[in-house]
User: Fold these one by one.
Assistant:
Number 1:
Amino acid sequence: MLRVFDFLFSFFGLLFGFPVLFIIFLVGLFDTGSPLFVQERVGRGKKPFRLVKFRTMSKDTPSVASHLVSSTSITKLGGFLRRTKLDELPQLWNVLLGDMSLVGPRPNLYNQEELIKERDNLGVYNVRPGITGLAQINEIDMSTPALLAKTDREMIDSLSVSSYFKYILATVSGKGSGDQVKS
């Protein structure tokens, strides 16, 4: 049932959100010259997939978890996109394709070995990763791997249609601040 919601929301989100996506894309061309950011992430069953987001950091920023990157890497447009969570909109494409869900554990990088171990131990990779979830609305990010994996497992165990909508509404209304970066 949740996959049906994922498909419908991502399809209509991309369809009706196209003007906003296009404007951000154009502004991003002037900001960094490369408005989209594509990165290989760990998906369901630990299979790789290519996550798509709007670029929020300069192009020469290393491919590591956000909490390991200096805040000076974030562009002016990127700061706005992160605050408003608009940088996440292109992930609707990943949801439409079935690589992700709207609600699920945030997909991590393959070089985040401690987080992979913690999530593996708790069976977090048995579900599709998501754009938002319990950890994100409670500002738990990838800098605390054990707590994040535990929170992801808690969300997976209690996920229902009601909590699915609760997490989406909390995210859209501004709860949670996304992955932290070093000051």
Number 2:
Amino acid sequence: MNTNKKFAASLLAAALLASGSAHAGKIVGVKVEPPNIVAGGQARITVDGEDEGICGLRVEYGNGDVDVTRMAKDKDNFPRSFMHTFAGAGTFTITAKGGRDGSAFGCTGEAKTTITVAAPPPPPPPPRHNRPPVSNAPPPEPSCPTGYVLNKKSVNMKTSAYSCNATKGAQLPSSGMECPSGTAYYTNTAGTLLGCKAVAKPK
């Protein structure tokens, strides 16, 4: 007797499940907005269908991510929307189809669409510092005022210092003389020697 009751209960459960699956919701379409995004951005996926009963909805995003949810007439009706973030670039096929959710059989029907995910733009280059151009021009040749001749042994190529010796009848220039950068004009008391001497750089 107990065996018969169990058998009858099994038949009834099977009939109910078959009846439920026959009246499951049906997937009729899926769309994605926007269809083109940049990696790291979100898109809205909307599944449309017919509300005929309780069923499981499975959404595959094409990148390995999946959402499974239960649909129920007058409660979780179609259309159903999902927000999803696509981390990597590429073209992905999004598939909406039936998927069992607990005791709910999968919805009938299937729909697909695609989304294109572009790689993010490269970061901007670091700011460039405006540095003065480096001059490779050689320093100017030492020059002496009228009546003075260059003392070639005094020329220092590193500091640009040099001196000039007076010839007979030479007179000190009233305005001194122009010296290279890093040097300063000097003369002796008698006026027989003048030139440009190196000056110490400030610390």
